[in-house]
Amino acid sequence: MNRINKLFQEKKNILSIYYTAGYPNLGDTVAIAEELERSGADLLEIGFPYSDPVADGPIIQASSKTALDGGMTLKLLFEQLKDLRKTVSIPVLLMGYVNPMLQYGVENFCKSCAEVGVDGCIVPDLPMIEYEELYSGAFKENGLTNIFLVTPQTSPERIRKIDGLSNGFIYLLSSSATTGQNLQVSEGTEAYFSRIADLKLNNPTMIGFGISSKETFDKACQYANGAIIGSAFVKNLKADDVAGSVKDFMKTFKS
Amino acid sequence: MNYFVNEKGYFGDFGGAYIPEMLYPNVEELRTNYLKIIEDEDFQKEFHQLLKDYVGRPSPLYLAKRLSQRYNANIFLKREDLNHTGAHKINNTIGQILLAERLGKKRIIAETGAGQHGVATATVCALRGLECVVYMGEIDIKRQAPNVARMKMLGAKVVPATSGSKTLKDATNEAMRDWINNPIDTHYIIGSVVGPHPYPDMVALFQSIISEETKKQLIEQTGNDQPDYVLACVGGGSNAMGMFYHFINDEQVKLIAVEAAGKGVDSGHSAATTSLGKEGVLHGSRSILMQTEDGQVIEPYSVSAGLDYPGIGPQHAHLFKTLRGEYVSVTDDESLQAGLLLTQLEGIIPAIESAHALAYLEKMKFTGKENVVVCLSGRGDKDMDTYMKYFDL
């Protein structure tokens, strides 16, 4: 059983943290992963930066730019992650946009993921149909899971299709928005979360976008198996005290 | 060979809809409705009425005699510069605003580089009483002050794009982010034949009026609707696609697309996408784009803000790859000189974008018999600053 399935079988209220590889300093990628695991994160999403991240708000755009300016590339990221599994045991996903992945070569990308012990990917602008027809083979061969996004506007039929193609979890966007905004659980959002619950999907769900604090995290956990924190975490990282700023942030989640 | 879009939204290897899930419902709504709406008789009637009475179409096809003499060919100029707002961009914004209304949208967003598409969008929004927000790179806002003022006077809100290089590419990113955050009531009027399917096909359909008219005008003027050459400049490629559209299946008509080489293709300051680019995904479609080995988009450069884009539309990528079109480039200097030449031989000051197409005539060999159509996509009023500085006027 892969690390992701195992995690969801064993735990509730899963705390997943997103951060951008190569930010705040080029060499921080693995150190942040290690510190996050020590501080109680259950799942990691490491972003590989892209010059034109249209689904992201200002915080992740800025972290991506810093990382790229510092020299981060997919090739370098895989080098940095070479010994990841010697020190990090929680599941790790890579998250990024499709173009860097295409230039690296999708098959090579999947192989490199498997080699360093990455468990899956989130590629927001990779269309479902392309994944299904062209790339799902390479993902499966390398034991990778592909995580799809669902928004309040995604139709039930499409959600069912996504559920069928998923083997890990489904990423529920709290609202149709770019990253880095605050979760407002309105009646509409609640209705959307219950609508998803009523579909009785095969895959567990995680709520992301707008989760920034213990309070919003707890709220999200009422409706899903856990939640994902991205911008709020990235914003908090301090270049001159990476480990300390990770620890301090994670402390706020211990009740 | 099929040069047009297939049922999956691809032109050969290019196109598709590489969009995050947040945009899926918006794009899907468009995809399932655009042909139905455009082909509707009422839509066609209203579209053509506005093109005639408001835009001033058909635009003339003008035989430029002195230019013809100079190059030893019959050179016809398709005068898109005479359209209301001064360029071909309005053909598309009229089409898309009528479509947006039929989809029940209340709010319009757009991206703009030089401001021509922004002005054309703000114009149709004023015309139809819809809210309008235009994203424009912070640097372009400074470079194109008169167009910013025009948009504001037309009632649009101009929002500076402060991310990345602060130019057209980033304005496009910001417009997409706006659309993600406003999925229900907003329509995004993309200004070129780029973006996720169905945009490249839809914008080409609206711009195809250019070649539709040209064919009729050629018959009237030459008795033959097939010229030897058709030339147009290419940034994203909307005027070129409109100019090529009805000639694409006339295989003996040579299609020449002129890209902006900037300070020279290999100077590191260029926007010659087909020379410098590789296949990849930008702004929602698979096409050819300028990028690093790692797949990061490279900042283009051109003296012309309208050609300063790191990609080309997917249909252009297909015409390029299948060799149906010839994709060439000219430099800043060559195009500015061509702009001056047209001004002094014909009394027409062209947009620097359009001057790129004219500049390529210099590199062609003619025997005196050829019929050549050049798309004069816009007028040069907006470029007077650049011309003044360059020629010390």
Draw up the topology in text.
The complex is a heterodimer of chains A (255) and B (393).
Chain A (H helix, E strand, L loop, with lengths): L2 H8 L3 E7 L8 H10 L4 E5 L10 H12 L4 H7 L3 H4 L4 E4 L2 H7 L1 H11 L3 E3 L5 H14 L3 E2 L2 E2 L5 H10 L4 E4 L13 H12 L6 E4 L5 H8 L4 E4 L1 H6 L5 H10 L4
Parallel strand pairs in A: 1-2, 1-9, 2-3, 3-4, 4-5, 6-7, 7-8
Chain B lengths: L9 E2 L2 E2 L8 H16 L1 H15 L5 E3 L1 H7 L2 E6 L9 H14 L4 E6 L3 H13 L2 E7 H6 L1 H9 L3 E5 L6 H14 L4 E4 L9 H9 L1 H14 L6 E5 L4 H7 L9 E9 L10 H4 L1 E5 L2 E5 L24 H8 L3 E7 H15 L5 H8 L11 E6 L7 H8 L2
Parallel strand pairs in B: 4-14, 5-6, 5-8, 6-7, 9-10, 9-14, 10-13
Antiparallel strand pairs in B: 1-2, 3-4, 11-12
Protein name (chain B): Tryptophan synthase beta chain
EC number (chain B): 4.2.1.20
Function (chain B): The beta subunit is responsible for the synthesis of L-tryptophan from indole and L-serine.
Task: Summarize the structure in short.
The complex is a heterodimer of chains A (255) and B (393). By secondary structure, chain A is α/β, with parallel strands linked by helices. In chain A, β1, α2 (29-38) and β2 form a beta-alpha-beta unit.
Widest beta sheet: strand line-up of chain A:
5-4-3-2-1-9
Give, in spatial order, the strands making up the sheet with the most strands of chain B. Answer: 3-4-14-9-10-13
How many strand elements of chain B? 14
Tell me the name of the CATH class of chain A. Answer: Alpha Beta
Count of helical stretches of chain A: 13
CATH class descriptor name of the largest domain in chain B: Alpha Beta
Order of helices and strands of chain A: HEHEHHHEHHEHEEHEHEHEHH
**Percentage of residues assigned to helices of chain A:** 40-55%
Helix-strand category of chain B? alpha/beta
Gross CATH architecture of chain A: Alpha-Beta Barrel
Percent of residues in beta strands of chain A: 5-15%
Looking at the overall shape, the CATH architecture of the largest domain in chain B is 3-Layer(aba) Sandwich
Q: How many domains is the backbone of chain A divided into?
A: 1
Pathway (chain A): Amino-acid biosynthesis; L-tryptophan biosynthesis; L-tryptophan from chorismate: step 5/5
EC number (chain A): 4.2.1.20
Protein name (chain A): Tryptophan synthase alpha chain
Catalytic activity (chain A): (1S,2R)-1-C-(indol-3-yl)glycerol 3-phosphate + L-serine = D-glyceraldehyde 3-phosphate + L-tryptophan + H2O
